[in-house]
Amino acid sequence: MKRVLVSYKVKSGRAEENEGYIRKVCEELRQTSPEGIRYALFKLDDGLSFVHIASIETSDEANPLGQSEAFKKFQEGIQERC
């Protein structure tokens, strides 16, 4: 089992945009139900900080998020949002 914890803070005014990308990732995960992943995310009280926790439980430890189009789009602009 592999666990990944990522925390970051977005720029002021970019939280809503970031949440939109996160919603799309969650929707895709619900629709596709990939095996071997547990994914949780949290928005902290400051309204700009986010924490993502992924638990990967695949036989080859491949991360199913790597196949997610919504996750790829989320990652594309993360540096500009932070």
Helix-and-strand structural type:
alpha+beta
User: Biggest sheet, open or closed, and with what strands and sense?
Assistant: 3 strands, antiparallel
Question: Mean of residue pLDDT?
Answer: 92
What is the CATH C-level name? Alpha Beta
Number of DSSP strand runs: 3
The number of helices is 3
Per CATH, which architecture?
A: 2-Layer Sandwich
What does the radius of gyration come to? 13 Å
Secondary structure blueprint with pairings:
Blueprint: E1 2-9, H1 15-32, E2 37-43, E3 49-56, H2 69-76, H3 78-81
Antiparallel strand pairs: 1-3, 2-3
Summarize it.
The protein has helices spanning 15-32, 69-76, 78-81, and strands at 2-9, 37-43, 49-56.
How would you describe this protein?
This protein is an alpha+beta fold and 82 residues long. It has a single domain, classed as 2-Layer Sandwich (Alpha-Beta Plaits), CATH 3.30.70. The protein is built from three helices and three strands, in the order E-H-E-E-H-H. Helix 1 runs antiparallel to helix 2. The radius of gyration is 13 Å and the shape is globular. The termini are far apart. The model has no long low-confidence stretch (mean pLDDT 92).
Task: For the structure shown, list the relevant keywords.
single chain; alpha+beta; Alpha-Beta Plaits; 3 strands; three-stranded antiparallel β-sheet; 82 residues; 3 helices
